[in-house]
Amino acid sequence: MKDNNMNVLIMSSDNVVYGGSFLCMASMCNIMQTKYDVHFLVVQPYRNEEADKYLEKMGVEHKYIHSVSWATPINRRSLSKFRRIVRPLSWGKTKIVNFIAELRIMRVIRQKQIDIVHVNNSFTYVAAAANALLQLLRFLA
Predict the structure, then answer these.
(1) Main-chain phi, psi angles of 80, to 5 degrees
(2) By the 8 A CB rule, do 57 and 51 touch?
(3) Taking the C-alpha atoms of 67, 69, 70 and 76 in order, what is their torsion angle to the nearest 10 degrees?
(4) How many CA atoms lie within 13 A of 5 on its CB side?
(5) Rg of the Cα trace of the chain?
């Protein structure tokens, strides 16, 4: 990271280049970097070449760290007896995947000397959890 006033990590909601959330986030990062010397690192939950190219075009650093949304769609099929038995297993897998993501994000926060962690959605908690855990570890040290 370049020497500047502030380093911000943003956990992207998704990598949909044509979605309003993604476009707004990329534009904000570009403007803040240009006008206010704030450096952004966007963490993406899954790979998307189109999103990578767009962020590169906007001059925004990005990194892929796989994580899974905590939100689960509810429909008639998901309420079946079989799904009620299997769902806890998939939640366990999600928790493991997201805990690994939290550890990786904690490492990025330390390495990049991140000052602020921002979550650009309500569907993922991994960046916020990683930062909270890191703050707790710093407090206890």
Answers:
(1) -65, 160
(2) no
(3) -140
(4) 7
(5) 17
Residues recorded for the chain: 141
- The two tokens of residue 110 are 């330390």
What is the torsional sign of CA 124, 39, 28, 63? negative
Amino acid, res. 103: L
The three state secondary structure string of the chain is: CCCCCEEEEEECCCCCCCCHHHHHHHHHHHHHHHHHCEEEEEEECCCCHHHHHHHHHHCCEEEECCCCCCCCCCCCHHHCHHHHHHHHHHHHHHHHHHHHHHHHHHHHHHHCCCCEEEECCCCCCHHHHHHHHHHHHHHHC
Query: What's the pTM value of the predicted model, to 2 decimals?
Result: 0.81
**Six-digit token string for 98:** 């997201």
The 10s digit of each residue's pLDDT in 54-76 is: 999 999 999 999 998 766 555 55
